[in-house]
């Protein structure tokens, strides 16, 4: 028996003009909303309430050091020492369709146009609010664990790297991806269903880098389906049941299961360089199972949801026992790793290799770099040396065979480009050990880490632990490939920033945490060097928010293109309004709804809301025009099971107006489409 609390809060942030975080594609900026992003929080406390563990899964690309430090500061001022570095795990789902701009290290400023306060605030406040809700709703209950195999939802996107791992090791596994989903189910003592956390390794990149609508991708769709199913009669984002689909060792795992294809010829490009005969690496893209990216997101999300539903319904193995947590800060650029009694090796200052610029088959890089580059290129080296400085001989030697493109550990203007100080953390809930890792472990790296942690518990009289990896926690350090995968320098290896022995260093560190928990000596662990906090309020290349204007003889919210009078189910109702910059709305309200779909009720002569902007059936597009004008188009993809009747679509926005030379205000407005009929045939 434990005390359990769950909470969910919006963390969407601005949906326009902000670069989306994930593909590092400068052209991929937000231009609307497919579905809202949420932070989902779970608190477990023992009945005496002496110990607590908090796990948060947020619909964001990754948790940054800045986000984590700000969240913990807010929790400290609210709750004192109840929620701390050691017992709060913050994990990102790794959607590539959420707003960026919430990092303090310079490298991430380049692709997200600096540090964007409204984006950072939305994430920090959303995470804190979800924890507040869980904290306020603690009740007695029970935990159950279950595990099972998810089929047809992932492929290994660097199979040639995976094959570098020893044959004796590979022969112990039936697949080159981890297909197992682990679920922790929470039930109140009166049988009330509270929610669950599940962990499964897959990249949420069913939505590709041509997408401009903010959304939570395949795992977010799985959460949506589960929460809609359990919170009957509620709008999306409402209701008390919370379903988290958290990330795991997804480093080399893609949901684009049709595999890599040359988009210009249709031929396979499943080769070590992921390159095409015509057009090179740029043309090699992996395709999902659907007819477009929305459909692929739906198919993969539904697969994951259906497996989770089955595991949830059948979960019967109860989790009991003590709560524990351990956390350390480590200077990852300088870890001495003891490989065995006679051999020690070191990690390196962070650096990114050439293949980092190649991107992956899920999102190709910009300049036709290819994956698997083990030597540099004099042309790019020359440009880099001029702009950013040449890597030192020490860093070059340390990272071999990686040819260094960006020696980020030696770049400090205006602030360091990459973290040196990294969080390592484990929390245990009875027999479940959650290993919170600061990046993307590949399939085999994750297997080695889980096994090492489990062995450590076994050898200190704590047998039978279920070890699960929670990905993208606390600070982002790119990828962690195995030593063998590192040698062939595909994208994941080039992005293993602390050098070839990164994984060995993490294994040594996490074994230390597991040992401390198993032997009850957590209090003796050194805290480690505290991470720096750079005093940056906001540095951004975003266009400034200007005054919004409506066309002549029109006003905000006027309809420019009307709906049809009648639609059948499965068709798309579409309406275009005179719009205003959605960033203005984001700065006014966190819970702002941009749209509703409403159904007319004859008996009461009133309209009832049936969809909001968190629905996967609605799409909100914003198009910027000239001189402060803009348009908003709202689509409703009418589901098959829609009740026939009379409907309308409404739009809610804010426009920015100048009151005087120095004073601007934002004024709310709304627009409504004509009524239209929905029929079944």
TrEMBL record:
GO terms for molecular function: metal ion binding; N-acylsphingosine amidohydrolase activity. The active site is at 254 (nucleophile). One of its GO terms (biological process) is long-chain fatty acid biosynthetic process. Residues 2-508 form the Neutral/alkaline non-lysosomal ceramidase N-terminal domain. Binds 1 zinc ion per subunit. Its EC number is 3.5.1.23. The keyword Transcription does not apply. It comes from Halcyon senegalensis. This is Neutral ceramidase. Belongs to the neutral ceramidase family. It catalyses: an N-acylsphing-4-enine + H2O = sphing-4-enine + a fatty acid. Residues 511-678 form the Neutral/alkaline non-lysosomal ceramidase C-terminal domain. Its cofactor is Zn(2+).
């Amino acid at each position: 028996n434990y005390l359990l609390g769950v909470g969910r809060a919006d963390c969407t942030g601005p949906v326009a003009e902000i670069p989306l975080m994930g593909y590092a594609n400068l052209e991929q900026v937000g231009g609307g909303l497919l579905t809202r992003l949420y932070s989902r929080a779970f608190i477990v406390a023992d009945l005496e309430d002496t110990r607590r563990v908090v796990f948060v899964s947020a619909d964001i690309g990754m948790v940054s050091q800045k986000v984590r430090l700000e969240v913990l500061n807010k929790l400290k001022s609210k709750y004192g020492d109840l929620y701390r570095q050691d017992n709060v795990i913050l994990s990102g789902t790794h959607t590539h369709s959420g707003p960026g701009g919430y990092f303090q290290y310079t490298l991430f400023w380049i692709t997200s146009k600096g540090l964007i306060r409204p984006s950072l605030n939305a994430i920090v406040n959303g995470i804190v609010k979800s924890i507040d809700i869980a904290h306020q709703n603690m009740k007695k209950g029970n935990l159950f664990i279950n595990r099972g195999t998810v089929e047809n939802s992932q492929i290994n996107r660097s199979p040639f790297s995976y094959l570098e791992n020893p044959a004796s090791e590979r022969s112990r596994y039936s697949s080159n991806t981890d297909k197992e989903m682990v679920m922790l189910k929470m039930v109140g003592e009166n049988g009330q269903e509270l929610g669950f956390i599940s962990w499964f390794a897959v990249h949420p990149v069913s939505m590709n880098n041509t997408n401009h609508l903010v959304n939570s991708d395949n795992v977010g769709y799985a959460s949506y389906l589960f929460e809609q199913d359990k919170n009957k009669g509620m709008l999306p984002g409402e209701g008390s049941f919370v379903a988290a689909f958290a990330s795991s060792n997804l480093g080399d795992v893609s949901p684009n299961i049709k595999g890599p294809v040359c988009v210009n010829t249709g031929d396979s490009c499943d080769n070590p360089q992921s390159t095409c005969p015509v057009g090179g690496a740029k043309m090699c893209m992996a395709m999902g199972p659907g007819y477009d990216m929305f459909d692929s997101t739906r198919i993969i999300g539904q697969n994951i949801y259906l497996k989770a539903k089955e595991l949830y319904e059948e979960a019967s193995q109860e989790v009991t026992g003590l709560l524990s947590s351990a956390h350390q800060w480590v200077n990852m650029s300088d870890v001495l790793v003891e490989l065995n009694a006679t051999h020690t090796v070191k990690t390196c200052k962070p650096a990114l290799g050439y293949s980092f610029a190649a991107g992956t088959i899920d999102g190709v890089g910009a300049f036709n770099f290819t994956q698997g580059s083990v030597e540099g290129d004099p042309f790019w080296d020359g440009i880099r040396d001029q702009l950013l400085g040449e890597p030192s001989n020490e860093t070059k030697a340390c990272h071999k065979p990686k040819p260094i493109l960006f020696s980020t550990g030696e770049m400090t203007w205006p602030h360091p480009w990459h973290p040196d100080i990294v969080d390592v953390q484990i929390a245990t809930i009875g027999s479940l050990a959650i290993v919170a890792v600061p990046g993307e472990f590949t399939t085999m790296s994750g297997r080695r880490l889980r096994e090492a942690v489990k062995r450590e518990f076994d050898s200190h009289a704590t047998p039978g632990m279920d070890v699960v990896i929670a990905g993208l926690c606390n600070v982002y350090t790119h990828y962690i490939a195995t030593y063998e995968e590192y040698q062939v320098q595909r994208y994941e290896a080039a992005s293993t920033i602390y050098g070839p022995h990164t994984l060995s260093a993490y294994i040594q560190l996490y074994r230390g945490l597991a040992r401390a928990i198993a032997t009850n000596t957590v209090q003796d662990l050194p805290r480690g060097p505290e991470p720096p906090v750079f005093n940056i309020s906001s540095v951004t290349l975003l266009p400034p928010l200007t005054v919004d204007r409506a066309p002549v003889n029109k006003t905000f919210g006027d309809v420019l293109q009307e709906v049809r009078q009648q639609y059948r189910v499965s068709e798309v109702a579409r309406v275009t309004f005179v719009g205003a910059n959605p960033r203005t709305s984001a700065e006014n309200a966190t819970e702002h709804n941009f749209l509703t779909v409403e159904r007319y009720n004859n008996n009461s002569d009133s309209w009832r809301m049936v969809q909001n902007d968190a629905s996967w059936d609605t799409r909100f597009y914003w198009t910027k025009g000239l001189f402060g004008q803009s348009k908003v188009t709202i689509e409703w993809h009418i589901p098959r099971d829609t009740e026939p009747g009379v409907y309308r679509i409404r739009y809610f926005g804010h426009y920015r107006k100048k009151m005087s030379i120095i004073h601007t205000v934002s004024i709310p407005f709304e627009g409504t489409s004509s009524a239209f009929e929905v029929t079944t045939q």
